[in-house]
Design brief:
Radius of gyration: 19 Å
Structural class: mainly alpha
Number of strands: 2
Strand content: 5-15%
Largest sheet: 2 strands, antiparallel
Helix content: 55-70%
Distance between the termini: 23 Å
Length: 72
Amino acid sequence: MTKEKIQRINELAKKSRVTGLSEEEKLEQKNLRNEYLEDYRKNFISVLDNTYIKNPDGTEEKLKRKASAEKN
């Protein structure tokens, strides 16, 4: 997500608190938030996919996904 889009999310949030948003702006805000959350989730999953757990014996093992998470 670009800086401009994040800045726009913040502008819409501020305007929402101060004067309110038109229906078009509400839709834009919703779409931008969804895009932001999607990017955030992808990044978080990437971090977890590259996470290792160090066992007391010194060996490392890759973090495993739960079976229910793999279906989603």
